[in-house]
């Protein structure tokens, strides 16, 4: 299994110093993700929930911090608080991870692997996994951990993810029939602006897990309905398409669409975006002689106000033919005052390493997991002082880990909810479908040239051209004359032995274009707009910046080394040692965004809105978590305090019992609503001053989980979260 981040000073993967118990469980989670199905939304939620469980198991033994998911019980302080925390954290994480992974997929083959990870860690820590009781009132930290895990599992069953049915979509259906990448062109595309599944000879994800059937369903098309962490109601839009209402947080508005008949409206913007992906594919060969400095002396340092917010602005931000963006690097390391050492390498090596590193393969911990590895790298750095926002006391390793994981987990989860809500609603096309579709139409540059169509792909000399009579691609009977050809990466069909062969770059028929990916994967099974990688990475960079109080990596430099001919997976390379380097966390996030264009997965219009949305998500998640840490708000709810006292009890309450809502002022009029986490009302009523001071609510029809009682009184409003068991 590949170590994703190398220790800067030691240059090794193993951690040689003591780790907190939270770190050990985070590493166990990442290990499980690397052998599980590659589902970014699901794994972001898993990381969030495990981080939530560990934080609550820590906070329950802290006098000043608020727990998140449940009301902190009154407990007798344990004699050894540190030992109690370690035990509660371990049982909470263990129970939740066993629930999420052990029976989730191919139990005959995968169950032993997952059990080995989690049970082995319990034994290493000296805990008995057979303790399953949840009666934390006994004072047992193990039972407290089990209790916390049970609450999260109950919460999960009504959070909108459809976990009980393996997260399947309930309504979404693709409008386009599958594209067969091994066959030329895209003749069966119904709507060129909508997502199209791919039909592959062998359908596998980045972790090498293969699936029955040739095409994959759209992953998490309705994920916008999943209960978020810090996303706000004012950022939520609800849009109806067909017979389904899509929930979209941070709606960026529609992407540019291609008029497939006349090439009108925003067709030119559509063409530019997807043509750029094709052109950048020509950069994926180190033998083209193009060299570049990839150190922070030349890369990164994009000014905050320079990220475009309009379609027109994209053209000034991205280099259409040369690749890259407007970042010009730093004159010196802001931490040392010394200039960064230049690193001159072939562009083809840089672009390929970038595409594979940020794709999180071959053993993918997915983009949200990747940012946890970066957080762990930063936390391990000898130059880091573990102070929140760089201020105050140095935190011990456990407090730093549980709080930083909780923050980052919430941000990664919200990034998935927002990005996939947008993906599901806009259902936007991927480059392989768009490029082939336009090329099938022809060229749109000039009606005086052959094969003209107003919705065709625009010609670009040296990159996108027409096949002429004497062209090597013309065909034995000149059957390809007039077709579109691209200077591009030639695809895995040109690779027999990945250890020694390269596909290289050359002229190919556009009808055969594929992205820089494995033949069993080709393109992720969900819509492109907006980029999940960009959203996750911008949110992660924002969390790390706010968490450390510093926008720069410790020492002003973060690094990852890719060794000559030992790093790339599906072709030989890189041709020399390459070290990816970043001064700021934001530089790493921006590099991730570019990698998806070089990888043939996203055009700029997918990328930039994801970056901008991720910034907002990271900031909101950080400050919500900080409020929880300081006990400013209690748990999932943010209650408004009424001027007149209202009491809601018992809490927790068993399904089938009666919930009582009581006004402590006999003369108060109040109304109540009982609402679940998706905003659905399960009960309502009112009490006048002439009635009993109590309202009793029948809970016999409710499923176990978390609900809110919202009470409106003449003296103000009150809200309380309740747990139905």
Describe the overall structure.
This protein is α+β, with helices and mostly antiparallel strands and 725 residues long. Helices cover 33% and strands 12% of the residues. The strands form six sheets. A four-stranded antiparallel beta sheet has the order 13-12-15-16. The two termini are 41 Å apart.
The structural class is: alpha+beta
Number of strands: 16
| Main β sheet profile | 4 strands, antiparallel
Helix content: 25-40%
Strand numbers in spatial order across the main sheet: 13-12-15-16
Could you report the average pLDDT, rounded to the nearest whole number?
A: 90
- What Rg do the Cα atoms give? 27 Å
- Counted by DSSP, the helix tally is 14
What secondary-structure arrangement, pairings included, does this model have?
Layout: H1 21-35, H2 40-59, H3 81-102, H4 107-125, H5 141-156, E1 236-241, E2 244-249, H6 267-280, E3 291-293, H7 311-317, E4 344-346, H8 347-358, H9 366-380, H10 397-426, H11 431-441, E5 464-466, E6 484-489, E7 505-509, H12 532-548, E8 558-562, E9 578-582, H13 585-598, H14 604-629, E10 646-649, E11 658-663, E12 670-676, E13 681-687, E14 694-698, E15 705-713, E16 716-724
Antiparallel strand pairs: 1-2, 3-4, 5-6, 6-7, 8-9, 10-11, 11-14, 12-13, 12-15, 15-16
In short:
With 725 residues, the chain is an alpha+beta fold.
Write out key terms for the chains shown.
three-stranded antiparallel β-sheet, Immunoglobulin-like, alpha+beta, 14 helices, 725 residues
